[in-house]
Every structure is written in structure tokens, then in C-alpha cells.
Amino acid sequence: MTSDVFSISDLADEFALTPRAIRFYEDHGLLSPERRGARRIYSQRDRVRLKLVLRGKRLGMSLAEIAEILDLYDADKSERSQLAKFIEVLTSRRMLLEQQREDIDAVLSEIDSIVKDCKRRLKAPPSGKTPV
User: Fold this and answer.
1) Could you identify which of 6, 32, 73, 101 might form a hypothetical disulfide with 10, taking C-beta atoms 3.0 to 4.6 angstroms apart as the criterion?
2) What one-character-per-residue DSSP string does 1-64 give?
3) What are phi and psi of 94, to 5 degrees?
4) Would you say the C-alpha torsion 8, 14, 15, 16 has a positive or negative sign?
């Protein structure tokens, strides 16, 4: 094969995925390989789309969000609508992660406070009471 076409094994090896994972993305319409008998032949376009799918997943995007962004590129080759949507999704994702970080910081602070109180109580002389 030339460097413009890839087998499922080629892509699986390159991206450290299983063929099953690649078929999963195909089943969700994110990839559309050519069929030659029972073999799937992936184009350079499929390879780039797979790379973008994996980047989107790393960023916490849903498959629906990824598909929408990829479809925007197919509709507008200038990439403007795709980039605008990508910014929108990433901004939303960032806000969610910042809220999660605040929540985690609050829980960690509460844990520190409880541990500090438990250590203080362990240092105190026994009172004969059953701990609560």
C-alpha cells in the first residue's frame, strides 16, 4: 500500500488502538473506509479524522461533539465554522473542568480538616467514651 491508504492494522499500530476501537468509530460514522471485499481501506482523510477523534476524546469531548465538528469541516472547507464550534466546545469543557477543580479543592480541604481533627483527638488523653 502507498502512504495514502492504510489498513485497519496500520491505523491500529500507529495510534495504539485495537481494530475493534477503530470499527467502533466507523460504526459511529466518524470514519468511512473503502471496502475491498472484506478488507477496509482507510484514506488519508480517515487517518486525519481518527487523529482528531482521539484528540477530542483526550479533551473530554463526546462522540456527538466530535462528529459535529468533523461534519462542519465537510460542509465548510474554510474551517471557520469548525474552528468556531471547536472554541465553543472547548470553552464549555474548560468551564466544567474548572468547576470540578473547585469541587475537588473543597473536598480536599474538608479531608484535611477532618484528618487534622482526628489527629488532634488521637493525641488527647482517652476519655473513656466510645468514639462517635
Assistant:
1) 6
2) --TTEE-HHHHHHHHT--HHHHHHHHHTTS---EEETTEEEEEHHHHHHHHHHHHHHHTT--HH
3) -60, -45
4) positive
For 86, the grid coordinates are: 471547536
pLDDT in tens, 101-124: 999 999 999 999 999 999 999 999
23 CB-contact burial (10 Å; exposed 0-12 / middle 13-18 / buried 19+): middle
**C-beta separation of 39 from 49 below 8 A:** no
39 — phi, psi (to 5°)?
-85, 145
Q: What is the pTM of this model?
A: 0.74
Residue 71 dihedral angles phi and psi, to the nearest 5° = -65, -35
CA distance 54 to 18: 13
Cβ atoms of 32 and 70 within 8 Å: the answer is no
Write the DSSP assignment of 65-100 as a string of letters: HHHHHHHHHHH-TT-HHHHHHHHHHHHHHHHHHHHH
Which positions ≥6 away from 28 have C-beta within 8 Å? 63, 67
